[in-house]
């Protein structure tokens, strides 16, 4: 047991959370969301993706979003970049941290970014060289770390191999993603143990989708191995909102609630984060996917009712 | 680490799951639900509660439900009994197992069953004597094992004390309930460790509500201590369906999915259980609260679409 005392949460709601929304979310709402998140104690908020609007129309306003958010000192606002074009646009507006992404599954990489894993690394080289020259930090994502929608099982060794290459190319942190949320705790541990043989655990993050409701159990298992960075999205934004079964990232609120119970500090004010979850879900016109949000909001409303009662 | 190889799941959907539904569910639906559950591999299905209809109008049909379900050999169908009147009614229709209940919180016990913890044990004595004389097995519930809506924190020692008394009175199994779903993994472990000093772990069960989304992480932590019996409800039935924040029991489907990933056998056919979750949620007119149910149903529908596509 090597439970960390402190966990860094990387808020991915504004990017991973919103990217699949089919109705365009006003740019002002995205900016307001990030500005509010900047006020509750995060050190990292993934802001948007410098990707072609043909791929992800929802984030077509990436330049305006990045330029308009209030950049608070001490907070990093990484953006996803798929290629040199994205990087150049990002550098032009002063981005200080980027995230690059590939997968541990050949088929997924082909279908997602239309190239082999090997080719994805070839594409990274100029991106990484240019980012390094501009003094921009680089985070790496490995998708399908616990399973692939096309290939099914993924070997822990395949994840370790891709993670190691990202590490050797200079990524300061590699986020291991259960993209389709199929993992369970033992599988999570085996995968992390395999990666940790090659990459220091301090340079790794966990990125769990909650499609099968397993995200918190997997995170607990990962904490037992000493993993101390997790990606999550406020109110569980993400997935495909119109397909009932496609959950998003683990909800930041639920993660913080668990971590508080484990005496693990995150620096984030849960009570204020609840309001942000409620804010963005009202804008999206649907209930929060964070059980902690729903429970705490219900509790607050009950308190209000009781107070009314006392004053009658 | 003392992970069990096999876990017994006590399905509490028909009782704990349905008891708070405000619209009366037809008796025939309750019977059909239990009959379907009897077909997928459970060894224990809590059928109903022999409680006054004034307390729980939804289960006013307890006698008819118990009499009408097909009782499959090898399956136990326990019913809740709050007092001698309930026991007598239950014995009259041939009940072979009962569950008695109290709490680790004085205030909760007062508000829930209108007596002190001590008085609840006084009431148990004739119930237990009569049940023993009739060769009826007795299961015990301890509510508020990880927190109380009125008192807040509950000492692990208080849970251990109540559980020990139930054990000494002859309960073959004591179910430790996180009634309001506030627990987290360390708290869960401390509580179980405290109880296990006095009651053998083989005589204990965990009963986790998912109000704050922590149930599976808590169950994983409990499994690490060797706990091998868990209560759950199909599709997460339970809680208060009209208060957004009041989740029910952990969903049986999500629990089985995790256990399968841990190579822990339950004897239950998950695929067929999905259909039962869909069946009862359609009757209740709302989506399943099991993420595994939603994900697998969505996957099946996608498959059907693909098949259609191939045939075009």
Description:
The structure is a homodimer of 312-residue chains. The first copy, chain A, is an alpha/beta fold. The model of chain A is unreliable at 307-312 (pLDDT under 50). In chain A, strands 2-1-9-8-7-6-5-4-3 form a nine-stranded parallel sheet. Chain A has helices spanning 13-17, 27-37, 62-68, 84-92, 106-113, 117-133, 156-168, 185-196, 215-224, 252-261, 270-284, 291-311, and strands at residues 8-11, 44-45, 48-49, 79-80, 97-103, 137-143, 173-178, 204-208, 229-232. Chain A has twelve helices and nine strands. In chain A, helix 8 (185-196) packs across helix 9. In chain A, 53% of the residues are buried. In chain A, strand 7, helix 8 (185-196) and strand 8 form a beta-alpha-beta unit.
Concise structural overview:
The structure is a homodimer of 312-residue chains. Chain A has 312 residues and is α/β, with parallel strands linked by helices.
Main β-sheet, spatial strand arrangement of chain A: 2-1-9-8-7-6-5-4-3
Mean pLDDT of chain A: 93
What is the N-to-C order of secondary-structure elements of chain A (H for helix, E for strand)?
EHHEEHEHEHHEHEHEHEHHH
Estimate the strand proportion of chain A: 5-15%
Largest sheet of chain A: 9 strands, parallel
Question: What is the number of helices of chain A?
Answer: 12
The general outline of chain A is: globular
Structural class of chain A: alpha/beta
Largest interface: A-B, 39 and 39 residues
Provide the low-confidence segments of chain A as ranges. 307-312
The N- to C-terminal Cα distance of chain A equals: 53 Å
What level of helicity do the residues of chain A show?
Answer: 40-55%
- The gyration radius over C-alpha positions of chain A equals 19 Å
Oligomer: homodimer
User: How many strands of chain A?
Assistant: 9
